[in-house]
Amino acid sequence: MNAIATIISVIGIGLLLLSGCGGLDGQSRGSFNGQSSGSLDGQSIGAMFRANPQHTGVYRTNGVAQLSGLKWKFKSGEEIRSSPAVVDGVIHFGSYDGYIYAVDVETGQEKWRFETEDSVYSSPAIANRVAYIGSWDGYVYALDIEKGHEKWKFKTEGKAISSPTVVDGTVYFGSADGNLYAVDVETGREKWRFKGGFVFSSPAVAEGVVYFGGSDHLYAVDTKTGQEKWRFKTDGFLFSSPAVAEGVVYFGSGDGFLYAVDASTGQGRWKFETEKAVESSPAVADGVVYIGSWDGNLYAVDAGSGQEKWRFETEAPIESSPAVADGVVYIGSYDHNLYAVDIQTGQRKWSFLTEKWVLSSPAIVGGVVYFGSSDGHLYALE
Q1: What's the distance, CA 344 to chain centroid?
Q2: Does domain 3-381 have CATH number 2.30.30.30?
Q3: Taking the CA of residue 133 as centre, how many other CA atoms within 13 Å lie in the half-sphere pointing to its CB?
Q4: Distance between CA atoms of residues 325 and 302, nearest Å
Q5: 9 Cβ partners below 8 Å, 6+ apart?
Q6: pLDDT greater than 50 at residue 175
């Protein structure tokens, strides 16, 4: 059973899958390097899924151009699809065993763990010393990152698979109950909610607008009022999380296309066809969009024209989302490998074999790549 079928069967909405679906997806400003805090709209910004609120997947830090080897690996109780976030020398992530972990980046030793009531697929967002993360138990948790103590939890009516995004005192996240939520980061009180279909996509925020996928639509919603600005329909389910760069929103769909949509008007600019569902979330760097597909390829596509620059073939579907750092794009595959690919040539620089699928999306900090595997380990490579 593929990942979409697994998730949907658990949630009980299998009949709602749209044509073309095949699987589940599952820092371009300041110092968004996944470790040091930056600033956006006067608020402290830490680490989050896809590296920043715009979800560009770009880490401004040293990468791993040549692999020396395994620095350490940490064993959780179940598979890790959550993508890690690093702040002040500690890496945070969730596991299918129901725990949220904090691990020392140097030693790989556990600092604390927090137990939820179900699997954790969501990836953490960290701001102002607080980690925000969802669980299949329907709650989004706010945890103090020093000791892992709960500050508050917010109950949705469905599984909280969507990874939160924190901007300007508000945490945004979706739920399988069909809503996108805006919640106060301090109190955990709801500011507004928007009904937009099943929300497994993680929201991107740029210029006062939150962009997210709900069922087969991409939505643009005002961050202050929660009012819809526009919507864009595709012919597949949206697990891919959008990335916003230079006034354009990029995202994949279960219909097999990568889309580019005008961020202001919602008008399509171009679409690029792959051979199977696209549930990987795009990275956008220096005028190029990088994205994986269930056809097993990592694509590099010109952000302006939608023309293919190169493709890199793995031996199995790709659900992991690419991350870019220091001239290299990193991505996982169902063939059990994490790959490092040259962004100019599309040639493999190195690969690292784990014991099972790599669906987690990598984070890169200070010359180390961190990612999870379905073998239950979090890996640190240098």
Answers
A1: 24
A2: no
A3: 35
A4: 18
A5: 1
A6: yes
